[in-house]
């Protein structure tokens, strides 16, 4: 498949539809060649301008997709259109169906222990017989990350889903993804909480209107109002700047190897990021 890309906010985004993504994952499973999926929304666009590790981890992705409707709207406004939103949670669900149908195994990393356990029960009900080769909650110490990566590799899983917030999941994948021997790698953010029933996803009409953030704000107004106000305002400002002065593509730091990572910086980043 010819790779179509658009340069947006300094990042090369893949102009593909959901079916294209799933087909690429199916090919990765058949050939055992790794595909690392990354998704970009308004919050990450704002964060990647000040977080080098997040930015370089996203640049490691084999496919970088528009997780937020705001990214799709901005791409069209800027004359560099993406065909559709490819939400991380929708990719997650489609890949679970694929794993179930094709007898593939999965690994799960993220969320609180009780949420992870509930999600395992939900998966067992919705996809009976689907093999979970490995699972671990997301509240681990930075020093444990290497052993967790080794355990995932030893599990022989075909797909790894990370239910952690940014930039923790991107840092883990950027640091260990190449060594896991897992064909399909996908950071799904808060999808574990949604699948476990802890939080509700916005109705379809809200999703199409690009208002999932507002629906979530209604569920946790006191915790989220200031975060969304800052993020949305900053994203609008960055889009306006992009219209006037399109950003050049970010480049990987000449002296930074994200695969092996700088242990001191990585530990500090992991400790500073709290899961939702």
Question: Could you describe the 3D structure shown?
Answer:
- There is one protein chain.
- The longest helix is centred in the last third of the chain and has 24 residues, at 221-244.
- By secondary structure, the protein is an alpha/beta fold.
- Mean pLDDT is 87; it is low at 254-276.
- It has 13 helices and eight strands.
- Helix content is 50%, strand content 14%.
- Helix 2 (42-48) crosses helix 12 (221-244) and helix 3 (52-59) packs across helix 8.
- The chain is globular and about 50 Å long.
- A hairpin with a 2-residue loop joins strand 1 (5-8) and strand 2.
Number of helical elements: 13
Average pLDDT score: 87
The main sheet comes to: 6 strands, parallel
Basic shape:
globular
Instruction: Encode the helix/strand succession as letters.
Output: EEHEHHEHHEHEHEHEHHHHH
- Give the CA-CA distance, first to last residue: 36 Å
Strand content is: 5-15%
Features:
276 residues; alpha/beta; six-stranded parallel sheet; 13 helices; disordered C terminus
What is this structure, in a nutshell?
This protein has 276 residues and is an alpha/beta fold. The protein contains 13 helices and 8 strands.
Fold blueprint:
Blueprint: E1 5-8, E2 11-14, H1 18-31, E3 35-40, H2 42-48, H3 52-59, E4 63-66, H4 69-77, H5 88-102, E5 105-110, H6 113-126, E6 131-136, H7 145-155, E7 159-163, H8 168-176, E8 184-187, H9 191-195, H10 204-208, H11 212-219, H12 221-244, H13 263-272
């Amino acid at each position: 498949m010819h790779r179509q890309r658009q340069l947006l906010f300094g990042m090369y985004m893949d102009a593909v539809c959901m079916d294209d993504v799933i087909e690429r994952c199916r090919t990765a499973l058949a050939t055992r060649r790794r595909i690392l999926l990354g998704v970009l929304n308004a919050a990450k666009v704002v964060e990647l301008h000040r977080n080098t590790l997040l930015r370089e981890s996203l640049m490691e992705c084999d496919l970088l997709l528009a997780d937020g409707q705001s990214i799709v709207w901005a791409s069209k406004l800027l004359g560099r259109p993406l065909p559709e939103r490819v939400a991380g949670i929708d990719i997650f669900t489609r890949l679970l169906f694929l794993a179930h149908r094709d007898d593939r195994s999965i690994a799960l990393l993220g969320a609180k222990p009780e949420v992870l356990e509930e999600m395992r029960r939900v998966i067992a009900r919705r996809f009976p017989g689907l093999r979970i080769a490995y699972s671990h909650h997301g509240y681990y110490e930075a020093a444990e990350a290497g052993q967790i990566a080794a355990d995932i590799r030893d599990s022989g899983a075909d797909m790894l889903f990370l239910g952690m917030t940014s930039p923790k999941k991107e840092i883990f994948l950027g640091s260990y993804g190449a060594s896991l021997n897992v064909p399909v790698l996908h950071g799904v953010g808060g999808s574990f909480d949604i699948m476990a029933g802890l939080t509700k996803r916005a109705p379809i009409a809200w999703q199409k209107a690009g208002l999932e953030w507002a629906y979530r704000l209604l569920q946790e107004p006191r915790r989220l109002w200031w975060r969304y106000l800052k993020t949305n305002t900053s994203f609008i400002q960055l889009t306006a700047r992009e219209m006037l002065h399109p950003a050049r593509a970010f480049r990987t730091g000449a002296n930074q190897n994200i695969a092996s990572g700088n242990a001191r910086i990585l530990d500090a980043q992991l400790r500073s990021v709290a899961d939702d």
